[in-house]
């Protein structure tokens, strides 16, 4: 056991939520610069934590998704006992994540009430009134009765320039050419997705406005078919289609983060890639349908949100419960273009 007490942070399961937790770690480091912060995170969000400079050690959770695995959690907690934790910040609201620091006998266990975790969480916060995710997590750095600081800095990730150059070279993104990224996917469900035909039409407008532009379609392997539809709607045989690169499934999340650091602008559904781009301070246009733009907005210096704010939204469902998906289908290309075009004008002016 080290002589210096440590802090444990138990990460959220979603990429965007992990990004939005970074200001909490910044506040903890500011309060105790000498105290190491360990992060316990599921494998899918570990690449995000590697880009957060306040995280000293990152450990992968060995548990299956959704399973209680009480014996495995007890064994893992025994290992944590020897690392000398003074406190633990439990960001997921589930009972099973509250178990870990309790079983590890960490003295202070900070978190929200969640699934009735009395006893497991002994410094309990309550989310009243509801607030957006960054202040929601940042509030854990203070006493439960206090409001979070009003001047919370936006989330920030760190990427090296050489790494970005290397991944761009591998994927055929030429140095010196302007690059705009589209992220047409969303892991949560189809209700968060703007139609591929709309993205394709937007690609045509981008190609017409910005000479020699490349349009990178980003996402996981599950998004490759959606991205291919975008490319086809852009006109695969024309100038706009030739500008579009379907890179879905061709990068790890680590590489996608490095790639987003190169983008001149990003258009994205409400997804992990949106919040990564925002934390890299890229100009972003964020499209919201089934989710609430006030709950998890992009926070880069140049950010625009587009939401029709229909009476039926935000429904927060994976699929439209009414079957029409109006919140995204009726979001016109012209509306999104009106937000993106001023960003691209700045890119165009900056071209040699």
UniProtKB/TrEMBL annotation:
Question: Keywords in UniProt for this one?
Answer: Glycosyltransferase, Transferase
Molecular function (GO) terms for this protein are: ADP-heptose-lipopolysaccharide heptosyltransferase activity
Catalysis: reaction(s) = an L-alpha-D-Hep-(1->5)-[alpha-Kdo-(2->4)]-alpha-Kdo-(2->6)-lipid A + ADP-L-glycero-beta-D-manno-heptose = an L-alpha-D-Hep-(1->3)-L-alpha-D-Hep-(1->5)-[alpha-Kdo-(2->4)]-alpha-Kdo-(2->6)-lipid A + ADP + H(+)
Lineage top rank: taxon: Bacteria
Matching entries from InterPro entries are given as: Glyco_trans_9, LPS_LOS_Heptosyltrfase, RfaF
Top-level EC class as recorded in UniProt: transferase
Is Magnesium one of the keywords UniProt gives this record? no
- GO BP term, pick one: lipopolysaccharide core region biosynthetic process
Enzyme Commission designation: 2.4.99.24
Q: Which SUPFAM superfamilies match?
A: UDP-Glycosyltransferase/glycogen phosphorylase
> GO cellular component annotations, sorted alphabetically?
cytosol
Please give the family membership noted in the entry: Belongs to the glycosyltransferase 9 family.
> How is this protein named in the record?
lipopolysaccharide heptosyltransferase II
Species annotation: Massilia forsythiae
The encoding gene: waaF
């Amino acid at each position: 056991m080290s002589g210096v007490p440590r802090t444990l942070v138990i990460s959220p399961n979603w990429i965007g939520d992990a990004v939005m937790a970074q200001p909490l770690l910044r506040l903890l480091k500011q309060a105790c610069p000498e105290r190491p912060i360990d992060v316990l995170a599921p494998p899918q969000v570990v690449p995000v934590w590697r880009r957060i400079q306040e995280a000293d050690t990152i450990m992968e959770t060995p548990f299956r998704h959704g399973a209680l695995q009480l014996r495995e959690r007890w064994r893992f907690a025994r290992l944590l006992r020897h690392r000398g934790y003074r406190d633990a910040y439990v960001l997921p609201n589930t009972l099973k994540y509250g178990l870990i620091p309790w079983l590890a006998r960490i003295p202070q266990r900070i978190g929200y009430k969640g699934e009735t975790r009395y006893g497991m969480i002994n410094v309990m916060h309550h989310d009243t009134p509801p607030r957006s995710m960054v202040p929601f997590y940042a509030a854990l750095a203070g006493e439960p009765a206090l409001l979070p600081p009003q001047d919370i800095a936006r989330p920030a990730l760190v990427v090296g320039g050489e790494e970005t150059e290397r991944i761009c070279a591998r994927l055929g993104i030429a140095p010196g050419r302007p690059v705009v990224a589209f992220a047409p996917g969303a892991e949560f469900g189809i209700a968060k997705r703007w139609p591929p035909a709309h993205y394709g039409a937007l690609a045509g407008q981008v190609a017409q406005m910005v000479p020699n532009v490349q349009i990178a379609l980003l996402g996981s392997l599950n998004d490759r078919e959606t991205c291919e539809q975008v490319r086809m709607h852009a006109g695969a045989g024309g100038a706009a289609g030739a500008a579009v690169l379907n890179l879905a499934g061709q990068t790890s999340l680590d590489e996608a983060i490095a790639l987003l650091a190169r983008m001149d602008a990003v258009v994205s559904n409400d997804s992990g890639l949106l919040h990564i781009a925002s934390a890299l301070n890229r100009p972003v246009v964020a499209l919201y349908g089934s989710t609430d733009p006030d709950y998890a907005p992009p926070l880069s210096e140049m950010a625009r949100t587009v939401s029709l704010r229909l009476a039926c939204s935000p429904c927060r469902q994976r699929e439209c419960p009414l079957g029409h998906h109006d919140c995204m289908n009726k979001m016109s290309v012209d509306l999104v273009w009106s937000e993106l075009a001023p960003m691209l004008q700045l890119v165009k002016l900056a071209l040699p």
